[in-house]
Design goal:
alpha+beta; 15 helices; 21% strand; globular
Length: 449
């Protein structure tokens, strides 16, 4: 017997970050009438475009991976051409020449030969470093990338006898980039999950994808157009101030904007964790008290991005470099990106990322920018970089949750009919990444559809 077409229902999504946009797209694709409430004027949440000084910057530099299957699927669904919007690079960890770093680049060979070749060709690693890295990879594969009991990344690296140089040049920057949590506090199991789906999968899964367009244009804007084109509504500048469960198993959303409240068959809460907890607390329902407690137990990690503008002739030899962060020496930067090689309109713009940047974000912005510029001038051996034409620091002190061992994360389902959660903080294998947010949004939509 053939399945009948799903009956169109009135669905609401609170929050137009990447999780909310993913949920809205999937609900619209299923034929439902979707209304999206977003408090800000720009879509994208914690991965969005920021209008500054007549120009546009991202609120943080991001790297996607070829393993981000759901993100890439939805980009295609909403009409984004991968080759135009993303620069595809092979897996690499490259430090500036003459910086006492390493140079590790995987060729585009079938897995796992690409990693073996990269290891053999790697510069800046001694024989002991290479053997330790090979031992880590082979042991993790043998274990199925699973731990009996979660521990910190630092403990895991000690257990696998990783060298100090390898910890500093490879594992620490990878952990910070993926989990935005220092290795001594980061979940080893979540770190292994990321490695499993990138280093441990097919070759293209480990590819590094750098956005050529701003983060709002990469997905949220196209997602909004997709939803609007199917009869949905995107209400920006419209914060959901109250959520109420009605007697007829419907839901009412009242906003702080001028538009009146509205009733819906189902709702996806896709706000940051703290805002989601507030909306759930309003319901005064013991069914969600456990989720509220989980959300309240999260701690936050900051991310700072320092944008340094130079003359259009300033260009790095590579699209990006890893940097050794030594805070006690004023070296806060962990990666530097040449934005001009991603978008010609941004020639001369370098973006330096500081993950888990609580201490850096606490500094005056001018002081942090000056320190980062001085770091670039020293490690790149280009003294003129110490004096950028202009500098801008964007810090998000609640960029992600601290991805600690054994952290309890709430499910998408709240236990109340017609009410789902979506966000990079819900239960899943990944840390707080774009892929985690998108997967959560997809699962929330599936739970309602």
């Amino acid at each position: 017997m053939a399945k009948g077409k799903a009956v169109a229902r009135d669905m609401a999504v609170i929050g137009a970050g990447w999780a909310g946009c993913a949920a809205a797209v999937e609900l619209a694709r299923a034929g439902h009438r979707v209304t999206v409430y977003e408090a800000a004027r720009v879509l994208g949440g914690r991965a969005r475009r920021v209008e500054l000084d007549g120009g546009a910057l991202d609120n943080g530099q991001h790297i996607l991976l070829g393993a981000y299957s759901e993100t890439l699927r939805l980009l295609k669904l909403v009409g984004i051409e991968h080759k135009r919007a993303l620069l595809n690079l092979p897996l690499q960890m490259r430090y500036p020449p003459d910086s006492d770093g390493m140079d590790f680049v995987a060729p585009r060979w079938p897995a796992p030969l690409h990693l073996a070749a990269a290891l053999l060709r790697a510069k800046g690693l001694a024989r002991a470093d290479k053997l330790a890295l090979a031992r880590f990879s082979s042991t993790a594969r043998w274990m199925g990338w699973q731990l009996h009991t979660d521990c910190s990344v630092s403990e895991l690296l000690e257990r696998y006898d990783q060298t100090e140089r390898l910890k500093q040049l490879m594992w620490r920057p990878l952990c910070l980039a993926a989990l935005n949590t220092p290795p001594e506090r980061a979940s080893a199991q979540v770190f292994l999950n990321v490695l499993r789906d990138s280093l441990g999968a097919h070759r293209s899964a480990s590819d590094m994808l750098l956005p050529r367009v701003d983060l709002s244009a990469l997905f949220p804007d196209a997602a909004a157009a997709y939803v609007s084109g199917r009869g949905g509504a995107i209400l920006t500048g419209s914060k959901a101030g109250a959520l109420q469960r009605l007697e007829n198993d419907r839901w009412r959303i009242d906003t702080t904007a001028e538009n009146a409240g509205a009733d819906f068959d189902a709702v996806v809460i896709a706000t940051p964790a703290a805002a989601a907890a507030q909306l759930l607390e309003q319901l005064q329902d013991t069914t969600v008290s456990g989720i509220v407690a989980q959300l309240g137990a999260f701690t936050s990690e900051a991310i700072s991005t320092c944008y340094l503008q130079y003359g259009p002739d300033v260009r790095l030899e590579q699209e990006f470099y890893a940097l050794a962060d030594v805070p006690e020496a004023g070296h806060w930067g962990q990666f530097v990106f040449d934005r001009g090689q991603l978008d010609a309109a941004q020639a001369g713009l370098l973006a330096v990322v500081v993950s888990a940047s609580g201490a850096a974000a606490a500094l005056p912005q001018a002081q942090l920018a000056a320190a980062v510029a001085a770091q670039l001038a020293q490690v790149l051996r280009r003294p003129a970089l110490a004096q950028p034409l202009s500098a801008r620091v964007i810090s998000d002190k609640r960029a992600t949750f601290a991805c600690t061992p054994g952290l309890a994360r709430p499910p998408n389902a709240t236990g109340l009919a017609g009410l789902m959660l979506a966000g990079d903080y819900t239960a899943g294998a990944y840390p707080a990444t774009l892929e985690s947010a998108v997967r959560s949004g997809v699962l929330a939509a599936a739970g309602l559809a």
